[in-house]
Amino acid sequence: MDDKTNRQQLQCFNKKIMHDVYWSFFGEKYQSRSEFDAEVRQYQIEISGIDSWQPDEVVIQFPRIRIEYYRDEGGFEYEDFIEIESDNGEFLTGGELLFKVHNAVVEQLREINHHFFEGLNLKSIRSRDNLPVYHLCQGS
After folding, report:
1. Mind listing the pLDDT tens digit for each residue in 89-114?
2. Where do the structural domains in the chain lie, given as residue ranges?
3. Which residues, 6 or more positions from 69, have their beta carbon under 8 angstroms from its beta carbon?
4. Distance between first and last Cα of the chain
5. Element spanning 36, H or E
């Protein structure tokens, strides 16, 4: 894929996603999406004072994405990645995305300083399969 094609594809995706959502990768994995959504909603209210959680909002119009993030192991920082696939094979909602990201990374992030979710930024489109690659913004 040439640079022009890659730039054109990048324009099709939201560059910044869910930067207005507050969450902490802390605790355990969630078994229930409804329980998770309720916790995220309560966390939004505690942090911002308003109920701004919209778990059914479509945030990515693509069925699968790669997310790169940083984890700490033994005092060393490593870049790692996960791939998230939508249940419907078409798009990802904010609720489904955050639920799947939380369950995939919580065990690596809950004990480090940078365990706060601060949104996702589009990094690139992987050329071999046109998969959008996002960077997980982590705060402390």
Report:
1. 999 999 999 999 999 999 999 999 99
2. 3-139
3. 79, 80, 81, 82, 105, 109, 135, 136, 138
4. 37
5. helix 33-48
